Predict the structure.
Amino acid sequence: MKEISLSQVKDDLSKYLRLAEKENIVITRHGKPAGVLMGFESEDEWFDYRLEHDPRFLQRVEKARRSLRAGRGVTLEDSEKSP
């Protein structure tokens, strides 16, 4: 992970957005971490990020896991065995 000062990022944001597609960049203010610049190489990566951080989606996943642990539902393995 690279560290770049805020003043550098402000001077050339598009350059750092391109770099952020490959690795996250820590933005510093007065030498201290102030934020992270994260880029996405594709719209699919952006979609995945949004899903991974959407509380409603995460709640549905957890609800489904609880249901499976309680013996309700069908596992992926079982669904592949069905004719």
The first helix runs from residue 6 to 11. The longest strand covers residues 32-37.
